[in-house]
Amino acid sequence: MELSTILRPECTTCATPGSKKKVLELISDLAAAQYPNLSSQAIFESLLARERMGSTGIGNGIAIPHGRIESIDTPVAVLIKCDEAIAFDAIDNQPVDILFALIVPADQCQQHLSTLSAMAEKLSDKQILKQLRKAADEHELYQVITA
Fold first, then answer.
1. Which residue, of 12, 33, 61, 138, has the greatest Cβ tally within 10 A?
2. Which residues contact 5 (CB under 8 A, 6 or more apart)?
3. Among 34, 47, 66, 119, which one carries the catalytic annotation?
4. Is the pLDDT at 51 greater than 60, yes or no?
C-alpha cells in the first residue's frame, strides 16, 4: 500500500503537544477531521486502550500509536514531529519526537499489521529519520515520509 493513500498532507504536522495525552488528543483530532461522522473522542479512546496494553514507543525517539475503530472503512494515518520531545514510556525510556499513528477499520487486522511493520522499518532508516527531524514544516515532513 502506498503511504500517500492513507496519510494525507492535512494529517501531517509539526507541533509542541507537551505530553503523551496531548499528542494522542492531537492525533485523534487530525484523524477525526477525515471522518466527519466519527468523534475524536472515539479515536482517542481506541489509542488510549492500545497504550494501556503497552507503550507504542518503539525507541530512538519514535512512537507508532495505533487503534482500531468499528465505524470506518478505510485506514487513516497521522504523522507528527514534536518540536520538543515528550515522555512516552518508550521501550528505551527515551522521549519521543516522531509519531506515526494509524487508525484502521476493526476488520482489517492483517493490513494493519503489515502497514505498522512497513512504517517501523521505514522509520528505522537513519537517513529518513534524520530528514524527518530536520524538516522545517509540514510540507517537507510529508515529502520526506512519502518519498
1. 12
2. none
3. 66
4. yes
